[in-house]
Amino acid sequence: MLLGMKTIxxxxxxxxxxxxxxxxxxxxxxxxxxxxxFEDKIELRPIEHINEKLLNTLLSEKSLMKxxxxxxxxxxxxxxxx
Length: 82
Prior knowledge:
Elements: E1 33-37, E2 42-46, H1 52-60, H2 62-68, H3 71-80
Antiparallel strand pairs: 1-2
């Protein structure tokens, strides 16, 4: 279900700001989200919507494993799972 669509700009630091109208409920202040990068799109999902099967599928992708199979990424994922 599409809740809204807005145009935003990526900063030189790679940051984005979610418009106020989209930061309600699942995307409110302090909530953890997961960024899913595809060839032609990026999805932001609340971390509680990422189930174990989907996470295992994503991690098994060869294209993602080369980037995600690092000590730094392991630490980052541990922080997200808390």
